[in-house]
Write a structure and sequence with these properties.
The chain has nine helices and eight strands. The protein has 230 residues and is an alpha+beta fold. Strands 1, 2, 3, 4, 5, 6, 7 and 8 form an eight-stranded mixed β-sheet that branches. Helix 1 crosses helix 2 and helix 5 runs antiparallel to helix 6. The radius of gyration is 18 Å and the shape is globular. The N and C termini lie far apart (60 Å).
Length: 230
């Protein structure tokens, strides 16, 4: 009985961070605690949030704000699980998702961009409903790839799984720069997905906290490779 309770507790902790299928795999491997220890790895980091949310939250009733967030999280959560991303954190309308950690994958930037496009389409459908209620909300995303230090942070009884590094800041700044409907990526993500996507170069952007201008690109959509081949 004690072993079963320990296993349930371990699964509960892991499912706070990982998609269910990955959490099941980690627990079955017996390496759950080790995987969550501090380590360094190249990851693809995704940030997303709603444009106009702060103004909306200041003027709308709390029940309206909660209804918008509930619908928003309900459509984005399953897409994170579908593409096997790791939800690093969410706060209000802001979400941060990691790929290639805790478990490695061969195509983290491709997975991240595919997820981002599906998220953009899903929120666009929600935005149509929100506009009927008088809520003018857009959706922007930023994606970057690079090395980060990852692991548990916090204190006994309240731990989070977190990524720290320039790549995290870059993804967040690209997200902040994105207009409604844009998915802004850095050069490394662009190189990983350029044969699969239609991309719009935006030139070099001066981003807060970045010492040098950053080459940025807007992901327009996935290419129909079968149609082009024919």
């Amino acid at each position: 009985m004690a072993d079963q309770l320990t296993e349930i507790e371990r699964m509960g902790r892991l499912k706070r961070f990982l998609s269910p299928q990955i959490a099941d795999l980690v627990v079955s491997s017996g390496d759950g605690e080790r995987i969550l220890e501090s380590h360094r790895r190249a990851v693809t980091v995704v940030f997303c949030d709603l444009r106009g949310f702060t103004s909306f939250a200041e003027t709308a009733e709390p029940e309206e704000v909660m209804a918008v967030l509930r619908a928003y999280h309900d459509v984005l959560g399953p897409l994170i699980y579908k593409h096997e991303g790791t939800l690093e954190r969410f706060a209000g309308d802001g979400l941060n998702v990691l790929f290639n950690d805790p478990l490695p994958c061969s195509d983290p930037s491709v997975r991240a961009v595919r997820m981002a496009i599906e998220m953009r389409d899903a929120v666009a459908d929600l935005a149509v409903q929100w506009r009927k209620l008088g809520h003018d909300l857009g959706f922007g995303m930023g994606i970057a790839h690079g090395y980060a230090t990852l692991g548990r942070i916090g204190f006994e009884g309240r731990y989070d799984y977190s990524a720290i590094g320039t790549v995290v800041n870059l993804a967040a700044r690209l997200c902040a720069e994105a207009r409604g409907g844009q998915i802004l990526v850095d050069g490394k993500v662009k190189m990983a997905v350029e044969t699969l996507t239609d991309i719009e170069p935006l030139g070099e952007l001066v981003l807060k906290g970045m010492q040098r201008p950053v080459s940025a690109f807007n992901i327009l959509g996935m290419r129909d490779l079968q149609a082009r081949a024919s």
